[in-house]
Write a sequence for this structure.
């Protein structure tokens, strides 16, 4: 198992984190580090362990094994209030009997800070989340998006070094959620601290994150930038979970040459060995439709669905149904050719 050396830009270093409830292992030997000022997203389906990992970082749960290093010191046994970490939950947990100002100032009042300092800090936070002048508003008078901003302000006013966000956009409608994605990224860049964000929404993760950790079955399947995760998935789960993919069985005949659908294709991958069974991943938008006689493969259009910016076209070819995203229209029943460039063929070890 790889050991991570604590470097100057690592704020959190997780070593061999395991969490089990009886015979049920929720987290299985997690090793990863999180950099200062990074927007890192834990992404995965329900039950993959992402929220449990977030709660361990925040101190709301203890790990069965492992260490949580914060700036090089093990904080695994520290309670949440002693960590330089704050959390925004999906249910914002705002106090309905307090107004906006009182909600944001709650933690500062607990610390018995000077009233004028508290007033100034609350004002700064409201400006940060674009709710200047809302000090005296009641919580019940706010929209869901406004309540979320108040929850973020309340967490940030305590000046944490890390902010944890547990699916905070899940309760918002689609249009508001997209707006808040940009808003969260803006706030993170403005305050310059580490955000650790939990979601099951792939688009959300791709649009907001500096780094994505894809989780499944209590393990980290892949860590990387959004571009790397999307373009170079490490296994079939990642390829299938991040966006949409055509995943086929193939044979790596030799370096830079793979066979699938009974056709040899030049590719850009190497190092798998000769005549090795592999999985081949091809994104729907990377397939070019041409006349049947001009295609590397040819098939019959089974269905066409308009998706707004492109058509989703299902094409049956040699027993396999291809998904193709294209701005060009095709007709059901039409025979078409498929062209795939070498750099758009991604090879992975067989599942």
């Amino acid at each position: 198992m790889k050991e991570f050396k604590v470097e100057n830009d690592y704020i959190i270093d997780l070593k061999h984190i395991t969490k089990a409830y009886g015979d049920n292992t929720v987290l299985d030997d997690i090793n990863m580090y999180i950099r200062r000022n990074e927007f890192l997203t834990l992404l995965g389906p329900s039950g993959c362990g992402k929220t449990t990992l977030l709660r361990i970082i925040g101190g709301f749960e203890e790990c069965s094994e492992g260490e949580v290093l914060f700036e090089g010191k093990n904080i695994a046994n520290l309670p949440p209030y002693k960590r330089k970490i704050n959390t925004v939950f999906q249910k914002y947990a705002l106090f309905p009997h307090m107004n906006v100002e009182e909600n944001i100032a709650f933690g500062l009042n607990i610390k018995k800070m000077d009233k004028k300092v508290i007033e100034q800090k609350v004002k700064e936070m409201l400006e940060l989340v674009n709710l200047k002048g809302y000090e005296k508003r009641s919580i019940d008078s706010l929209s869901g998006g406004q309540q979320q901003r108040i929850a973020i302000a309340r967490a940030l006013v305590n000046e944490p070094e890390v902010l944890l966000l547990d699916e905070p956009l899940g309760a918002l409608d689609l249009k508001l959620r997209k707006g808040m994605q940009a808003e969260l990224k803006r706030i993170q860049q403005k305050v310059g601290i580490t955000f650790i964000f939990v979601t099951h929404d792939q688009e959300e993760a791709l649009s907001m994150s500096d780094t994505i950790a894809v989780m499944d079955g209590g393990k980290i399947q892949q860590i990387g930038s959004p571009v790397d995760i999307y373009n170079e998935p490490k296994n079939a789960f990642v390829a299938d979970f991040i966006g949409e993919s055509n995943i086929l069985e193939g044979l790596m005949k030799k370096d830079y040459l793979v066979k699938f659908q009974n056709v040899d294709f030049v590719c850009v991958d190497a190092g798998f060995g000769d005549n090795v069974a592999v999985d081949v991943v091809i994104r729907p938008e990377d397939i070019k439709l041409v006349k049947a006689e001009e295609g590397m493969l040819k098939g019959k259009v089974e269905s066409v669905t308009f998706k707004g910016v492109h058509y989703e076209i299902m094409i049956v070819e040699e027993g396999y149904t291809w998904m193709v995203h294209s701005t060009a229209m095709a007709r059901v029943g039409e025979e078409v050719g498929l062209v795939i460039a070498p750099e758009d063929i991604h090879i992975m070890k067989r599942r």
